[in-house]
Specification:
24% helix; 5-stranded mixed beta sheet; alpha+beta; 12 helices; 4-stranded mixed beta sheet
């Protein structure tokens, strides 16, 4: 009896330094030469063929073929990979939790990551837990293993997600390993399994993403793990394909779909570092989601597209000759072009004093050159021509005309009306 043990070795090296797969275990004759060792360190491993097992809860399951570390000769010492081996899973998990700034928590069932992200338009967001939220204390680090990113720095949530994706890829994205990770989204009470957050690179897994996007049943942020297979650059946009031939279940041309990352001319630098064979983790944002694009042409199939607008939505890395990933990195942040014009506008405002604003009112007076011949009529008055500001005189002639139009003499006419009323009263009294 026993439980499913995660992070089983699927590869090993034989005595001839050839990499062998766990699928070769049990073949007769054996297609490898013993002794076997870890593919990334010199620790000896043994073969574990496929066997039926019963869990501690009484459920039957089949333990797949894999490689296991050979037992240590010293009693009481557990077998573990040598120092510096990337397959030291426990140490890697501790390092991910330690470097997440409280966003990742190690639990009995695995590791849970809180995905705290801001909108792409919020360039000053710290991308850390909101004020007042509990910050988890990082676990003790037994080996002081550093997990970092290459500049420019990614947010801790994205960095942790990229390192988890790298760790699972080294173990072949085994379902038992994937089940050890969950994502806690803001606004959701229950954690989301990693398989419902990060899709790929398996085509069947990406097909499930297409179905959910087409049905509109995704209620949280999702990411896609893929590999760049093609790029296309034009004057207007940049297109990068990270997955192809994804089954959709539809007939004809719509039977398969591809996954693309696209950027317009203002955001093209986010995709320029992505070249062929680069591993990519593309993450949606609260205001930028994955969508299914359905072309109008009947010759083209559907496409799953993301238009990233922030540098932290893209994490990419290369693989060395041994298949080990480099530290994740992101494109350079976009230059904040709209912020500079605002500062330039603020500077000229104090310089543009009110007299300059009055000056434009004087240009409308240049139509007064037409009124200058009218101003020739008052040369009879000598005191007025002596004053040089003749342009101020044209507005004065219309002013005397305006008061002439206003009924100012009407108020003095009212008192005589009252006298007339008085005369009428006397006339009535005389009649009596």
């Amino acid at each position: 009896m026993g439980d499913r043990q995660p992070f089983k070795l699927r590869q090993a090296r034989d005595a001839n330094d050839r990499v062998i797969s766990a699928r070769q275990i049990g073949q007769k004759p054996e297609p490898f030469t013993r002794p076997l060792r870890c593919p990334h360190c010199e620790h000896e491993v043994t073969t574990q063929p496929e066997q039926p097992r019963i869990s501690t809860k009484g459920k039957a399951f089949t333990r797949g073929a894999h490689f296991a570390l050979a037992k240590e000769k010293e009693k009481g010492r557990t077998a573990e990979h040598l120092t510096g081996c990337p397959l030291r899973t426990d140490h890697t998990l501790h390092a991910i939790a330690r470097r997440s700034q409280g966003l990742a928590e190690l639990k009995a069932g695995g590791l849970q990551l809180r995905l705290v992200l801001a909108t792409t338009t919020d360039t000053k967001a710290p991308l850390l837990p909101p004020p007042g939220s509990p910050v988890l204390a990082p676990p003790a680090d037994p080996v002081n293993l550093k997990i970092r990113t290459v500049e420019p720095v990614l947010p801790p949530a994205v960095t942790s997600a990229a390192r988890i994706a790298q760790l699972l890829a080294m173990y072949g994205n085994d379902p038992d390993d994937v089940a050890q990770f969950t994502i806690k989204h803001p606004g959701l009470r229950t954690p989301v399994p990693w398989s419902d957050f990060c899709y790929g690179p398996d085509p069947d897994h990406l097909a499930r993403l297409y179905q959910k996007l087409a049905e509109g049943t995704i209620r949280h942020l999702v990411a896609v793990l893929g590999q760049v297979t093609a790029t296309k650059t034009t004057d207007s946009n940049v297109s990068v394909r990270i997955a192809t031939q994804i089954p959709t279940g539809l007939p004809g041309v719509l039977a398969h779909t591809d996954i693309y990352l696209r950027a317009d001319a203002h955001h093209r630098q986010l995709l320029e570092p992505l070249t062929e064979d680069v591993q990519v983790l593309a993450l949606a944002a609260p205001d930028v989601a994955w969508k299914v694009w359905k072309p109008n042409s009947s010759r083209l199939g559907h496409q799953i597209v993301l238009w990233p607008r922030a540098h932290w939505q893209i994490a990419y890395w290369n693989l060395n000759s041994a298949g080990l990933p480099a530290p994740p990195r992101s494109p350079n942040p976009l230059t904040e072009l709209p912020a500079r014009p605002l500062r330039r506008r603020a500077a000229p405002r104090p310089a543009a004093a009110t007299p300059r604003n009055i000056a434009p009112t004087v240009p409308p007076v240049p139509p007064a050159p037409v009124s200058r011949p009218v101003a020739a009529t008052p040369p009879a008055t000598p005191p007025e021509p002596t004053t040089p500001p003749a342009p101020t005189m044209p507005p004065t002639p219309p002013r005397p005309v305006l008061p002439a139009i206003a009924p100012e003499p009407s108020p003095p006419d009212k008192p005589p009306e009252r006298l007339r009323v008085g005369k009428g009263l006397f006339a009535r009294w005389r009649r009596r």
